[in-house]
Amino acid sequence: MKKILFTILAAAAVSAACTKFEQDTVPTYDSVAMPEVTATVVSDTEITVTVTAAEKTHYYGYAVMKGAPGATADKLVAGGYAKDANVVAQGEAGTPQTAQVKYSEETKTVTLELSGLAPLTEYTIYAAAVTEMGVKSEVAAMTVKTTDGTEPVLASANFDETDNVLTFILGFNDPVQLTGNGTAKAWFYAENYYNASGEMILYKEVAIPADHIAASGNSLYIAVPASEYIPGAYVAVTYSADMVKNGAGAVNAAYESHAIAYDQTGAVQKKGIFGYYDYASWDFSLVDPADLPATDGGEGNMEDDEVVEVEPVYFSDWTELMMTAYTTSKYPLAGRTGAGGAGVVVSESNGKTVSYPAKTFGVVSDYVAAVLLAEAPAYGASISFSIEEGTFCDIFGNENNAFEAEDAYFCSYGYTLEDIIGSYQYTCASAYSGDPVTGTWTIAESDNPEKGNVMFTEMYSSECMANVYAQFDTVAGTLTVPSLQLYGANEKYLFAFCSSDNNGNVSDVDVVFAVPQAGVINGQSGYFGDAAINPADYSILGFFDVYYGFEAVRAQATSKSAPARAAVRAQF
Fold first, then answer.
1. Tens digit of pLDDT for each residue in 94-111?
2. CATH entry 2.60.120.260 includes domain 36-145
3. Considering the entire predicted model, what is its pTM?
């Protein structure tokens, strides 16, 4: 049995080895030509595209794309460019201009009317086909460029202020570049400088330097130099024709109109290209800035840390007093803002202080504001006044900082020497006995101004052998007589005008008398008297008498009385 089996297997092997197979055939694939593409520029923003598929096309795809991204057949026939950012969108639905089309006699040609495109821009139309067997054609591509036959048109306007430079950014509908021609101007207006019709009046016009004008992309930049900076100003900008050109060489039209005015509601209405500077506050000063020393090459300026000492201003007639403050703003004052206020502080010589809000204050000239007193201050009183922040503004709307002028004014008697010179009858009381004492003094103009501006030629009813000198303060209304001045002599003693302390001892302290009106002397600062001096060694022997309650009245008619206090006041 084994032998028979081996025989069968051998026969089978021989039979297998003798079997004949046919050779494999190579399949034949179809092909298709790429679609035919045509494109025509209709206008600056329109093109017409035609895509015609060739025979043997099963499906074909196309796309209209901005620029030339290099489309592939795979994506075209599969609609793979439908979401590409460069695909042109058209119509209200924003349908992408890319599609996959099944070939038929009715669909073999597609015509696209594309609008809303960018002027002077390249667009590329791609198309590719695929056969029924899936064989893709080469990619057909055609690039066209839209025209730009129109002038660059202003589409937007913005401005920016940085470091006192006001820059206008003017956007055009085309990319632009400077022509090297044309001019630009800036026109300045102030919100508080207008006519009866509410139209703001031109403050100044400025030609823009060529190096302050530039172009980039779609924008024209016009920068008003920092040297022209005015805080709070409204600024219009204009430019001439032929300032910029687009890629096709078309130049801009002139933009030269502008207007700004208040309407009936008080709102500002503007026509044109306008910008504005931010407000900047300013200070008041007791000194006219024009009178300040020049620093940094400019008149009327001073360093921030520089202090100018200001002496008090003396006055006698309060009804004519205007306490003035000079604006440090370079621009005229417009008036009060309706906010803020002013105040007055009166400090009398006896220590009494009176404070009250000023009722009358305002602008008296372009650069000066003033505050008036509401009541008569005491003679010899110092006057301070203040102005609250935001009380005044200049014509550009900039407001003042808070201001205080401490002891800026002094209520003076306004005397002359003639108001003290003359013969006086005095009355007083003896500090020793309390009895009344009377006598005469005579005061004349000094023959030695270094010792005082007046002198006593008669003292205690005796003609002076040596004059007693004194200083008459015509402003403060005081008569200061230095102590220990010899004025007479007899066989035993020298006589001296001397002050006294509270214990009756001779003092070297000056005696200060008040002069409340011309020809009246009273209110001495302390005790004084008639002292005896040893002629041998000039030692002080003591007082003959010490006096208090002194008052002297000039014998002849006074040349003038205290200043009048009933004048009619000027109103703001």
1. 556 778 888 898 998 999
2. no
3. 0.64
